[in-house]
Design goal:
By secondary structure, the protein is mainly alpha-helical. The chain has one domain. Helix content is 78%, strand content 0%. The chain has helices at residues 6-37, 54-57, 59-67, 71-100, 103-124. Helix 3 crosses helix 4 (71-100) and helix 4 packs antiparallel against helix 5.
């Protein structure tokens, strides 16, 4: 297997970003269509803020609602996919730079990945 060029890495990363964003948009659109098709009966009271609860704010809650085809969970899953797309881009860059044997770029990309992972995990707790 030959070393990929910079252009090969750029093309694969761009294709992955397009795929991630398109998939996220399709999932959010499908959830939105289901939400509009079966709206909730209760009209929300916007005078006070009410948090969504663990069903939409945790990954386990989102997947549980997703398995039950709840529209709000489907929309939330699409947003999780949208957030995961840049993280996947950094992972793709680490792999691409490793295949090119660019140690400096691998280390920088791993640093960026660790910062992303830390900030995402810090925001979840």
């Amino acid at each position: 297997m030959s070393k990929p060029t910079d252009q090969d890495v750029d093309i694969s990363v761009a294709a992955m970003l397009r795929f991630g964003i398109t998939l996220s948009a399709i999932v959010v659109l499908a959830g939105g269509a289901l939400y509009l098709r079966h709206p909730f009966v209760a009209i929300p009271n916007y005078h006070q803020f009410h948090s969504s609860g663990p069903s939409l704010s945790t990954i386990a809650g989102i997947f549980h609602g997703l398995l039950q085809l709840q529209p709000r969970s489907i929309i939330q899953f699409g947003l999780v996919l949208l957030i995961a797309t840049p993280v996947a881009r950094v992972v793709f860059c680490v792999v691409g730079f490793a295949r090119q044997r660019s140690t400096l770029y691998v280390l920088i990309s791993l640093l960026v990945l660790s910062i992303l992972t830390y900030s995402l995990s810090k925001g979840a707790f």
